[in-house]
């Protein structure tokens, strides 16, 4: 059974810092991995989708990497801003059309 | 529509009552998913639709839960004889294809509270 773990559970950084969020998964036979952000009381917004054949994806200040063999992904946020404050979740797809297995998230607070 | 729309946004009900939650996916998205998010828990998969068919219902917690999708569009999740442990945020998502290739787009969810 696929299990997804995110460390740390919570993180507080001052504005302007670069930061890394971690995601690990137990079954390396994945098709893809997605990073989402969730704002309080809102749904999830997909940030980046990395296919299993890819090593990284970039969008603006965000860079996600994938090391399938070691079961790890990182989300790098450059020059953090207060608007980046949210919960970040990673999710893996192990090839069924239906299922994403989600981690429990990292709650990020960027302070002024 | 511009995004995935869910209604109601909040629902408070008494134990034992039935509830219906509605999801209106992005126009043209063939795949539709229901997830549940309980306090302090990760997202839990409930059911997946491709068109009007549900090839994967494996996440439905009990036979009190059912869902349907009509016209390849709107979906309704029904919970019969609600229990307090059903209290959670119910999230609907849609995608153009399936999650093997496509990003998921989520609605804002329905917060269900069973008293």
Please describe what this structure looks like.
The complex is a heterodimer of chains A (112) and B (115). Chain A is built from no helices and 11 strands. Chain A is mainly beta and 112 residues long. In chain A, strands 2, 4, 5, 9, 10 and 11 form a 6-stranded mixed β-sheet that branches. In chain A, strand 7 (62-67) and strand 8 form a beta hairpin. Chain A is globular and about 40 Å long. The relative contact order of chain A is 0.34. By secondary structure, chain B is an all-beta fold. Chain B is 0% helix and 50% strand. In chain B, the strands form 2 sheets. In chain B, strands 2, 4, 5, 6, 9, 10 and 11 form a 7-stranded mixed β-sheet that branches. Chain B is globular. The mean pLDDT of chain B is 93. The interface between A and B is medium-sized, with 27 and 27 residues.
Short précis:
Chain A is mainly beta and 112 residues long. Chain A has no helices and 11 strands.
Q: Topology of this structure?
A:
The complex is a heterodimer of chains A (112) and B (115).
Chain A: E1 4-7, E2 10-14, E3 19-25, E4 32-38, E5 44-51, E6 56-59, E7 62-67, E8 72-77, E9 86-93, E10 101-102, E11 106-111
Parallel strand pairs in A: 2-11
Antiparallel strand pairs in A: 1-3, 3-8, 4-5, 4-9, 6-7, 7-8, 9-10, 9-11
Chain B: E1 5-7, E2 10-13, E3 19-24, E4 31-37, E5 43-50, E6 53-56, E7 65-69, E8 75-79, E9 88-95, E10 105-106, E11 110-114
Parallel strand pairs in B: 2-11
Antiparallel strand pairs in B: 1-3, 3-8, 4-5, 4-9, 5-6, 7-8, 9-10, 9-11
Uncertain residue segments of chain A: none
Number of helices of chain A: 0
Radius of gyration of chain B: 13 Å
What is the string of helix and strand elements of chain A? EEEEEEEEEEE
User: What level of helicity do the residues of chain B show?
Assistant: under 10%
> How many β strands of chain A by DSSP?
11
What's the SSE pattern of chain B? Answer: EEEEEEEEEEE
Query: Into which percentage range does the β-strand content of chain A fall?
Result: over 45%
Write down the oligomeric state: heterodimer
Helix % of chain A is: under 10%
What separation lies between the terminal Cα atoms of chain B?
33 Å
Average pLDDT taken over every residue of chain B: 93
Main sheet of chain A?
6 strands, mixed
Strand content of chain B: over 45%
Largest interface: A-B, 27 and 27 residues
* Poorly predicted runs of chain B: none
CA gyration radius of chain A, whole angstroms: 13 Å
Gap between N and C termini of chain A, in Å? 41 Å
* Outline type of chain A: globular
């Amino acid at each position: 059974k696929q299990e997804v773990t995110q460390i740390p559970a919570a993180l507080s950084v001052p504005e302007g810092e670069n930061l890394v969020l971690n995601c690990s998964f137990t079954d390396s036979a994945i098709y893809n991995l997605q990073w989402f952000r969730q704002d309080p009381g809102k749904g999830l917004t997909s940030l980046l989708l990395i296919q299993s054949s890819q090593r990284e994806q970039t969008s603006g200040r965000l860079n996600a990497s994938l090391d399938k063999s070691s079961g790890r992904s990182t989300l790098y946020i450059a020059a953090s801003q207060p608007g980046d404050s949210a919960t970040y979740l990673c999710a893996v797809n192990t090839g069924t059309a239906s299922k994403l297995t989600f981690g429990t998230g990292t709650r990020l607070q960027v302070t002024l | 529509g511009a995004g995935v729309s869910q209604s109601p946004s909040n629902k408070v009900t008494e134990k034992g009552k039935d509830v219906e939650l509605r999801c209106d996916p992005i126009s043209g998205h063939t795949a539709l998913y229901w997830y549940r998010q309980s306090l302090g828990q990760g997202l839990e998969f409930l059911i997946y639709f491709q068109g009007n068919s549900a090839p994967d219902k494996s996440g439905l917690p009990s036979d009190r839960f059912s869902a349907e999708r009509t016209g390849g569009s709107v979906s309704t999740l029904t919970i019969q004889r609600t229990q307090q442990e059903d209290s959670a945020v119910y999230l609907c998502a849609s995608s153009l294809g399936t999650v093997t290739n496509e990003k998921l787009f989520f609605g804002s969810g329905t917060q269900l509270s069973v008293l």
